[in-house]
Records
---
Amino acid sequence: MTTALQRITVARPAGLRDLPGQVRQLLAWRGLLLALVARDLKARYKHSVIGFFWSLLNPLLMMTIFTIVFQVLWANNTIPLYPLFVLTGLLPWNWCAGAITAGVGSIVHNGHLITKVAFPREVLPLAVVIAHGVNFLLALIPLFALLVLFGAPFTPALLLLPGVVLVQGLFLGGLVLFLAALNVFFRDTAVIVEVLLLGWFFLTPVFYRVEDLTRTAARVLYIVNPMASLLACYRQIFLHGVVPAPDFLARTAVECGLIFLGGYLFFLRLAPRFAEEV
Amino acid sequence: MPVVVCERVSKRFWLAHDRPRSFQELVIGFWRRSRGGEDLWALREVTFSVEAGEVFGVIGANGSGKSTLLKIIAGILAPTAGQVLVRGRLAALLELGAGFHPDLTGRENIFLNGALLGFSRAEIARRFEEIVAFAELERFVDTPLKHYSSGMQVRLGFAIAVSSDPEVLLADEVLAVGDERFQRKCLERIAHLVRQGGAVILVSHNLDLVRSLCGRALWLERGEVRALGAAAEVVDQYQAAVGAPSLAGRGLASGIGQRWGSREVEITRVDLVDRSGQPRTVFWTGEPFAVRIWYQAHRSVARPVFGIAIHAGEGMVLTGPNTRLANRPIPVVEGPGLVEYRVEALNLLRGLYYLTVAVYDEYLIHAYDHHDRLYAFRVEQPPAISDRFGCLYLPADWSHHPGRRPAEVPVPLRAET
């Protein structure tokens, strides 16, 4: 046996310099991450064929409702291609809301695993984010069908899509890691998040244009709400076929990257105590 | 070559009595500065090492820190002080099949559970046939797990865990599950592992198993190392200390439960005594037996109710009498005193029983002092009593009446002699 001694020592708060080791460990456990994503998706669609199509149909129905309310009933809606405008906002938002709602409890609800099996705890919330991300990607299929139908421009800007998806994944990953860890120690987190999500939905330009807000409001929204920036990127790529402004893109990516880092470090700091608290 | 080294490992738990669990409680907590709670040292300066090719036993009463120790070695809990070194691949059987999903098939669960134990998909695929064969589930791999019996799930969990050929195997009481044939199969598999140079750390209450399977053993008492050495000697010392009949094995000294109450009346001592008034922890079936509850009332308390409960193993309450139900009211207690509960014949079969003792207010609502399953005693059967099943002995007789039909005159309960 040539294996080295692994050292388990006193838990000390994880800092920045532990991060490379933690990431290496996480990569070594990618098999578990994928298995948990597969479990999540399989368990969700196990019982019905409709189940899968329903997750495609749901955003289309929501799109129809928003279109009826804000284009048919609303007096002067000047947003062109309003159904597509709503859908391009709804799909990333659904990923966000779904991942957060399911992710907050991902540690607490898996208490039987946390107390019985040793594995990097971060795979549980990350698997939730990835599973909802897979759903999001699948829901892009009907979106593309509609884009073709409405004759939206297909340009090389689409090549940027994977990058934007990745940035949103980082943002959601950081947020869900933070909330899942917090929820272990304060169980009210899940309830509070539920309320905040509703407010967040209205502060995210899903069914309205940021340009229709006051100038200051628009600026503040882009800075404090990464979802607003992400939606702007998705719409430029899908609806206008243009590459978002580089500085806007870079600012969004850096902001989301920092949120991921912060959430991950917060999670790693508390993770050693999970087995005692869940 | 040592594969597991524990160096002065300590673990402290914070037993909070009113830990804030919500934001509301947290905010209130800022006003009331002092939050109740106490430290519990589950492990204190535990040092030992386990060599390759060794089966190492860990024994001790419930709550002595055995499971905490295994969880620290497995990396589930972090030690408060000290360090643990582990060489090679470690598999922990703390609970078989943790993480099984009832809606997924056996096949899907093998991959999921294997991933939880740190195997790659390719590794599991390579061992898949072996796992299924060991668990004897060939016909059921594509059946959802919810249709498996609990025995089948346990077999599958064990098969997955040992399929990795771990260099260190941690087993917490898991060999107590499954039927006898499968248990033998598990033991053979463990022996095979050890022959290949693996090490096994075994936590068990089955002292006979520890004595026969382990080379060395560690005895933990309240988180501290009480003895460490050859398994047979450590088991002997343990049995001598807990007063278990040395051949019967499976000894347990103290109970498993907790104590609570406001303590205006405090239970200071509890004795189980035989007919001559001698305290004992082992009784014969059918023998007279008494529970003596010594109390100290710190102020005058009117109409207290004393009660006991006898539990079969860790679970069911067999009986729960008290002075109020028995119509033996106690007008008032003040200062020291004794309440005795006498039984003509202790009609319990062989086994381990736990005893709860408590004193409550007259409405049985407020606990002055409640000792939940804090005491244990063992019952042995004299050779004349041959009942083997259950835990209750009913003095009884069987009779047989060939040729009788239900329509005929009923057979009287007391046969005319």
Note: The helical segments of chain B are 23-31, 66-74, 106-116, 121-135, 150-162, 180-195, 207-213, 231-242.
---
Amino acid sequence: MRYQPLLALSACVLCAPAFATQYLSAEQAQQLMFPDATAFRPQPLALNAAQMQQIEKLSGLPARSVNWRVVGAYKGDALLGYMVLDDVTGKFELISYAVGLNPDATVRQVEVLAYRESHGGEVRLPAWRRQFVGKSASGGGLTVGEGIANISGATLSCTHLTDGVRRIAAIAQVMLKK
Amino acid sequence: MIRRAQPWLGTLVEVTIGAMGGAAPDPQNPADLQAANQLINLAFAQIGQVQRLMSFHDAASDVSRFNRAGAGEVLPVDPHTWDVFQLAQRISDSTEGIFNIACAPRLVAWDCLPSPASARPVYEPSTAVLRCEEGSMVRKLAAGWVDLGGIAKGYAVDLAVEALRAAGVTSACVNAGGDLRVLGAEAWPVAIRDPLAPFRTARTVQQGDGAMATSAAYFSAKRHAGQQVCALVDGRTGEPLPGRSSITVQAPRCAVADALTKVVVATAGTQHPALRAWDATAFII
């Protein structure tokens, strides 16, 4: 068993991130967004062509996917809101995030779940990854531990993320609004 | 250590709580986690407030209202916006105008910012566009647009850190895409990107109580109408400052560190008198 993580790491050298942080699991995010909820129920969405068109018109962005991961938050039978999970990829980055929505489809909160950067061959660099070795890895992802560096450097634009939030707000308007 | 990230101010903002009331929160303890998350919410609320007040992109912000105003108009703005305008003016004065928030028309012309109106003012480095007046009022002195992109992120970080301090946090770090501030005696490791290979770490520095801001053109540089442009502008000439190096300024306040990076980029040196005047130091990679 103890060799498995090493094998996984070496197999992943080409796709390993240069800078990466895991902030929250989906379960932690839903708890954070809806602390009063007593139940969370998966309510996946499948969009039809007309709905996708409507979403594109509302957001000014391609609807991108037919299927969306949605969780309903309930207190007893009362609906508190929804959380939509999504990933966006930019030229250099992959961001997993969650959007909390009120029943009226307004955005309540946006939380980044995980952030990864990669850039071709440069992702081979093990220096950054080495920081994570030996740190807690509960839930299969990397967990922030003591001593993990902040990054200072020019801002990587998060246009893809803000577009993603806008798209989800439109999906909520069309599909979830009560 | 409990850390979260949200998108604000066009970048990812990270808030990390290292210790509250002198003790590190235990992520496995629900009470600790809840307390830390409430503090992090408080910090993000400060950042959100700065975005609402000072975004160039939001038509309802103080900055957008100012940009739409005609020459001679006097506008009320939020005290925070007034503070940032005032600080920007003082930094501009101490840097011979290298730092100038009125260079926004250039950034719009280069498609680094969206155009707030159809009539485009021309950037004239020697013309003052804005004056802070009593009672949180600002006067538009001449046609022009201002952008607080070079200072507001730092100011937002300062506000968030002050809110955490007031709420009893003893160790924290707030990082808005490279403009960061550490609260507390304990130093935090900060990886500085390599400007020639931005996905690598060029250097790791230990940042104690205080702020650090890093500026470089590697993500914003592009060609526009045959000219190499980027989001950094020399306020004296309105010319872009592409360059291949990375500039880091350390100062007590993040707003000051953020603004002074432009001075170091423009002068390609770390000895400008404004740095000492603002209790700042700089290094170039």
Note: The first strand of chain A starts at residue 19 and ends at 22.
